[in-house]
Design a protein that fits this description.
With 499 residues, the protein is mainly beta. 4% of the residues lie in helices and 48% in strands. The longest helix is centred in the N-terminal third of the chain and has 9 residues.
């Protein structure tokens, strides 16, 4: 029996059906953290924190009652860390939640929404509330806690807060629960890089695109900020990226890897140098990307998931463009577990609707998931809309897998003349092919590159396509990642088959 299987056997279930959790659509399993024999996670939107303590000690469940009665929410960004005998977990919660109705539109009232950091003492099997904050507004809320980083030199926590309307930035929280803003820049995710806690700037702009970093020097608290224009960021294929909403970030290979819709930003913000953008599975205007999920390094290489439906719109919203709302409901590919090893990423396995959290447990990988996306403002439901659960993969499978048959069908508007798209990792595939259906013929440029290649350093090949259906054999490009640009002509449909 694997380590993961023994832990899940103690839990007694691997899935959670729809339960009371008023919010926007579905939450998921978040914050997975395995520390000193205890597996922690929060089930959102039901605001229940689980601590699986082994066969002899059982399972402890905390229902966020320290914030108030009938809490919902919990965490939707994987804000957790462990220090000595304590697991810290943060996020947000409604206590209690209230929904306003207007025909088909149902809107959540945020008056009772709190941002929080809790602490679970493993030895005492006890949860305490370290810090909470609310602005008590019906439509706005205080910045959620979306990342927690521990500074061992000052014995404080740094909390990232970018999702919200007030109380945003990096906050230093001491062990007595005193919180002080150390940077006003809205930030979403972060990681320890060298001797800094580096956080990704969150917006401004529609869908809050990546804008750079704020880094806090451990021990001194000194801050530095590096701003980036995603439209002008250098890349091997020579183009920027549209609306790169930020996922997680992780330090590896002496660089900071920041996952975003459209690809990965790689660089060292502490040096002041701009990052380089590497296009990976970029199919704008689709939301498809490494969003609402964390990154782990079980084999010393970043491992994360490109989700096919992390966010979607059903009724409609006044906060996202109509084109992105329509495309949010299109299933263009399975969610993909991707390993960013060496210079060439590798697709490890296809998954379902979306993964929400990852953790490594000895010989296994635990994946938290949901069968439904996080929805938009007017899509509020009284029950969580998805089935949430846990699944385990062996570490051997993660190390050796690759080449599973996959079909990708981007939205028709992806392949517009002049736009670069794609970024498909070809490692492990023997017969990768691209399909283009043209109106009157077209000319397509294929860029081939690896992570680490310099700006403009991609290998370039041009293909002339005839009217109607065309297939391009990509096996000659199998040493790298491939992206595409329509140089001329009109393309009606694009598809990729990887086998």
């Amino acid at each position: 029996m694997t380590v993961a299987s023994s832990i899940l056997e103690v839990l007694g279930t691997v899935s959670f059906p729809q339960g009371y959790g008023p919010e926007w659509g579905s939450g998921g399993v978040y914050g997975l953290k395995y520390h000193k024999g205890v597996l922690y996670f929060t089930l959102a939107f039901e605001a229940r924190a689980y601590f699986i303590r082994g066969k002899s000690r059982g399972v402890t469940v905390y229902d966020y009652t320290l914030l108030g009665k009938e809490a919902s929410g919990g965490d939707t960004y994987n804000a957790s860390t462990a220090v000595d005998d304590v697991i810290f977990f943060g996020g947000w919660a409604h206590a209690p939640p209230t929904i306003r109705r207007n025909g088909r539109r149902r809107e959540l009232d945020f008056t009772n929404k709190y941002s929080h950091i809790h602490a679970y003492n493993i030895k005492e099997d006890k949860v305490t509330l370290l810090w909470k904050e609310s602005i008590h507004h019906p439509r706005h809320w205080a910045g959620e806690v979306s990342e927690i980083i521990y500074d061992p030199l000052k014995d404080v926590l740094y909390a990232a807060r970018g999702d919200g309307h007030d109380m945003l930035g990096v906050y230093e929280v001491d062990m007595q629960g005193r919180a002080v803003q150390v940077s006003p820049n809205p930030v979403l995710k972060g990681a320890v890089h060298l001797d800094h806690a580096c956080f990704t700037l969150h917006g401004p702009g529609e869908w809050k695109p990546f804008r750079g970093y704020t880094c806090i020097e451990m021990g001194t608290g000194k801050t530095l900020t590096l701003t980036v224009d995603p439209d002008r960021v250098p890349s091997p294929d020579g183009e920027g990226v549209e609306k790169p909403r930020v996922g997680s970030t992780v330090s590896a290979y002496t660089k900071l890897y920041t996952m975003a819709r459209g690809g990965v930003f790689v660089g060292d913000p502490t040096s002041g140098d701009d990052p380089v953008f590497y296009r990976i599975l970029d199919f704008y205007p689709s939301h498809y990307g490494p969003l609402r999920v964390n990154t782990i390094t079980p084999l010393a290489a970043p491992l994360t998931v490109w989700n096919n439906m992390s966010h979607a719109t059903v009724v409609g919203t006044d906060e996202v463009s109509g084109e992105m709302q329509v495309e949010s409901r299109r299933v263009l590919a399975p969610s993909l577990l991707v390993s960013l090893e060496g210079p060439q990423p590798r697709i490890v396995a296809p998954l379902g609707v979306r993964a929400t959290s990852l953790e490594s447990l000895g010989d296994s990988i635990i994946i938290g998931y949901s069968t439904s996306p996080n929805l938009e403002r007017y899509d509020s439901t009284r029950l969580d809309a998805g089935i949430r659960g846990l699944a385990a993969l062996s570490l051997d499978m993660v190390a050796t897998a690759g080449g599973a048959e996959i079909v990708i069908r981007p939205p028709p508007s992806t392949a517009r003349e002049g736009r670069v798209f794609g970024g498909i990792p070809l490692a492990g595939y023997k017969r990768p092919r691209a399909y283009f259906k043209t109106v009157n013929g077209a000319k397509v440029r294929v860029y081939t590159y690896n992570i680490g290649d310099p700006p403009g350093g991609a290998e370039v090949d041009d293909y002339t396509l005839s009217q109607g259906s065309n297939w391009i054999d990509l096996s000659a490009h199998g040493w790298g990642i491939v992206s595409f640009k329509i140089l001329s002509g009109r393309v009606g449909r694009v598809a990729f088959t990887l086998d």
